[in-house]
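Hey, sorry to bother you again with one of my protein questions. A protein chain has come my way and I'm curious about its shape. It would help a lot if you went through both lines with me. I owe you a coffee for this, so here goes:
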Amino acid sequence: MGNNGSAGTPGKGSGHGISRRSLLIGGGAAAVGTAAVAADKIRHVWWRLPGVDRARDEGARDYAPATWVAASTANWRRADRPDDYAVDRVIIHVTQGSFESAVNVFQDPAHKAASHYVVGKDGQVTQMIRELDVAYHAGNRSYNERSVGIEHEGFIDRPQDFTKKMYEASAKLTAAICKRYSIPVDREHIIGHVEVPGTDHIDPGPNWDWPRYMKLVRAASTDSARAS
């Protein structure tokens, strides 16, 4: 299951913008020889400034087949991805519990963690955090900022929990996310929680059928490309 990565180690490819402090006191020196880069960073740092917030529609979903249940605001932070942080990973989690327990705990402000989506054994998909926002799910700040997290109902030591409907529904969701952000459909960019640098989690575990899952994601990606 997801965990808070606010203190995690930044990974390669972090999308961090420059700090407001550096904008105020260090801009002159930092701009020498790097005017284009600095200007680009300034354009993407607006959302950090006090009193500025991107307008959003309550209950809006990024994935049309999903239902919406809002996670506690303590379990994620507002952002404007991919304008402030590039999204280049999908991270696969397993809840170590039921679908209902995952949805409930992500609504609990004391949990301090949540994923963008939860997928049930029956193929039900619930979105709990907008993709534009940073969910606390990876246990690594950089990976939180660059990824979309998907929880899956079940236990890592019970292969029977990973049903046909779950794999198919999750694969379609992942394919849609990859299409939206031009993420390559491969194992470098679609990873398990266990593969996040610095994590102490082992999900989705040895019973998650990666070859089967990736085949389904590629098929869903191909179907989507043909439809468009």
